[in-house]
Write a structure and sequence with these properties.
Blueprint lengths: L2 H7 L4 H18 L9 H21 L4 H60 L16 H22 L2
Helix pairs in contact: 2-3, 2-4, 3-4, 4-5
Amino acid sequence: MNTTEELRGSGAGQGFGVAGFVIGLIALIISFIPCLGMYAIVPGVIALVFSAVAFNQASRASASRGLIIAALVISILATFIASWQLVMIRRATTGIGRVGTEVRDAFRDDIGDEIREKVRRALEEIPDFEELPLEDTIEFDTEEMIKELERLEKERENDEGSRNP
């Protein structure tokens, strides 16, 4: 019997090939599960490594490679799908974060301006406490409050100007 025929009959790489196929199949199934499929990257990469090692061993020994090629294809597919899910989830969370920031800023700007104007009007309508005949009143300076509100508005405008180049 020829040594080439002996090597063809050998199971070189078949153990790694079967392991890569099974792990790749598990990774492929997991990769289709919404929101959990991204975790199939780990077994997908492991299956890919096992399949590559098996393919290398089978090629050197000229052994059959049918199962090993199937393991490679399944491993690559599972890793690709899991990677795609990971990218999509990262994009979604980034987008959701941006939407939350924009809503917060819009709410703060629109509602904040309205409330500031109401407070300004209310402060202007309040008479100085010194003119009231009440004793034990709290000293309240409306001019100082209006100046403080204007200072805060300028700070906010400066902050917005520095955020939007």
